[in-house]
Design brief:
Helix content is 79%, strand content 0%. The protein is mainly α and 155 residues long. α4 (114-144) packs across α5. The structure holds fe (ii) ion (2 copies).
Length: 155
Amino acid sequence: MKGDAKVLAHLNEYLSYELTGHRQYLVHAAMCRNDGLQRMARIQEAYSAEETQHAARILDRILLLGGVAAPREFGPIAGGPTLAAQLARDHALVAGAIAHLRAAVGDCEACGDYVSRDLLTEMLDDEERHLHWLDTEMRLAAQLGEHNYLQSQMG
Ligand SMILES: [Fe+2]
Ligand SMILES: [Fe+2]
């Protein structure tokens, strides 16, 4: 089965987001663990693991369509120096993924690849929930102040 070239390019681009997210959240989880922020470390670990599962599903789809798995590098993963910076970096990555997915879903639909469309729509749903969670955490951090917010992430 041969997939549309544009769809395959979108799948590879989203694979790049998944793998970057996996690595970035893993780094952030370790930094939180090291800083004693156990609650946030657990959440970041879960996000990192989730991206591995997503990447595997995207890879399967690329190969089923006869494509080549060719994720690009987004550059070195640099963990944010503070929890606020980590959340801001994750927010930027997820917002980028959402913008890409919205365009990709439309292109999958236009060329009749409904299975890729549905797969990427499911990914979009997850990314929107992730962005909402990041928005909520960033709002709480602003409302509570750094000291109280950090304390809330220790448990
Ligand atoms: Fe994902
Ligand atoms: Fe994600």
